[in-house]
């Protein structure tokens, strides 16, 4: 089979297409291609197809309209070159990747149920520690299941890679991690990826470093805080950890220790819908919205840098509030955790299972 060439208007050299999508090929080559969800849901990798043909896989209509398809627009994360292609991305480029991604083999070194719906997983890489910037993520492959992106919670240079994996209802990958993953299991890892990583320029701003985490978005925020505070212990920082209720809180003791070790760090854990209002609250845990907390703590964010990770809804709301409060665009770094699409064969299996269940109940 003849290899396909991908020419990107904003990149000086043509790329040889891999088996993956147009976006996969670009990221593997170190191209700062704009992207976010990698699942055909956000539309950030929207691309003008200038020449050639591609095979386009399913995506959400909100990410790419029929009219846009008719104008030759495609989603780089959902299309595969059929011929040599020439393309041009539409958004501003992502920040240049600090480290080129590479594929490695890892072994599960440790497991812990950090919360009822969160597993903490430590991986040991066969080739030693991976270079990455705090806030980035890797793509993990467990068993023969679909690859999923998970953010590192550890500092770069650690012997063990730490990941926080949230258990999703009917999630095949997260369900495997929760029920079947064992120490010693082999894991395929590729990374690092992501442009919402810690910038060294944060120390030049007079305002604090702000980290806003929703659920397992705590992982990249922990990596950022651990790195920033270890590099410059006098750093002023504020962490907002948003969860639904007490069941969603995890690593509370570790956060307390981090706050005690660094006088400049303030932490607020916000419960949006506590089952027992007021129960179990302490100096970290409070009832309320993370947006209300940010609004209460800051009249302006013009002098601060802000990092946020979590659900698209939370990240979008935080981004809108920060922008309204005057944050500089180059000081705002967002990582929305989009849900991965269910592969067709899994969707079919699930449909068959549901039909059988209804049959036996009838």
UniProtKB/TrEMBL annotation:
PROSITE patterns found in the cross-reference section: 2FE2S_FER_2, FAD_FR
Domain 2Fe-2S ferredoxin-type: 4-93
CDD domains according to UniProt: fer2
Superkingdom to which the source organism belongs: Bacteria
GO MF, one example: iron-sulfur cluster binding
One Pfam family in the UniProt entry: NAD_binding_1
Occurrences of domain FAD-binding FR-type (ranges): 101-199
Keyword Translocase assigned: no
Keywords carried by this UniProt record: Luminescence, Oxidoreductase
Any one of the GO BP annotations: bioluminescence
Cited PANTHER family: NAD(P)H-FLAVIN REDUCTASE, NADH OXIDOREDUCTASE HCR
Family: Belongs to the Fre/LuxG FAD/NAD(P) flavoprotein oxidoreductase family.
Name assigned to this protein: 2Fe-2S iron-sulfur cluster binding domain-containing protein
Protein's organism: Pistricoccus aurantiacus
């Amino acid at each position: 089979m003849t290899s396909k060439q991908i020419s990107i208007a904003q990149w000086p050299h043509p790329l040889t297409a891999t088996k993956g999508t147009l976006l996969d090929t670009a990221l593997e080559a170190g191209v700062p291609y704009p992207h976010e969800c990698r699942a055909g849901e956000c539309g950030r990798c929207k691309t003008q197809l200038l020449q050639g043909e591609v095979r386009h896989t399913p995506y959400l209509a909100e990410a790419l309209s029929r009219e846009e398809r008719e104008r030759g627009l495609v989603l780089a994360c959902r299309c595969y070159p059929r011929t040599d292609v020439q393309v041009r991305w539409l958004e501003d480029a992502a920040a240049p990747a600090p480290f080129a991604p590479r594929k490695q083999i890892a072994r599960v070194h440790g497991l812990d149920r950090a919360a009822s719906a969160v597993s903490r997983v430590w991986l040991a890489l066969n080739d030693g520690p991976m270079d990455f910037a705090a806030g980035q993520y890797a793509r993990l492959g467990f068993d023969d299941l679909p690859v999923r992106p998970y953010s590192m919670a550890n500092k770069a240079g650690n012997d063990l890679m730490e990941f926080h994996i949230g258990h999703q209802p009917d999630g095949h990958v997260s369900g495997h991690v929760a029920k079947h993953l064992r120490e010693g299991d082999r894991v395929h890892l590729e990374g690092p990826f992501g442009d919402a990583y810690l910038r060294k320029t944060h120390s030049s701003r007079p305002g604090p470093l702000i980290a806003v985490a929703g659920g397992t978005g705590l992982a990249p925020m922990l990596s950022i805080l651990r790195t920033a505070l270890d590099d410059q212990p006098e750093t002023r920082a504020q962490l907002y950890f948003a969860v639904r209720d007490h069941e969603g809180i995890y690593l509370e003791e570790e956060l307390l220790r981090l706050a005690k070790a660094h006088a400049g760090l303030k932490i607020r854990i916000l419960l949006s819908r506590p089952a027992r209002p007021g129960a179990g609250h302490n100096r970290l845990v409070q009832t309320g919205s993370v947006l209300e907390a940010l609004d209460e703590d800051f009249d302006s964010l013009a002098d601060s840098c802000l990092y946020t990770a979590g659900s698209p809804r939370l990240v979008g709301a935080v981004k809108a509030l920060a922008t309204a409060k005057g944050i500089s665009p180059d000081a705002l770094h967002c990582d929305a955790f989009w849900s991965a699409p269910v592969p067709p064969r899994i969707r079919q299996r699930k449909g068959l299972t549901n039909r059988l269940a209804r049959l036996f109940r009838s």
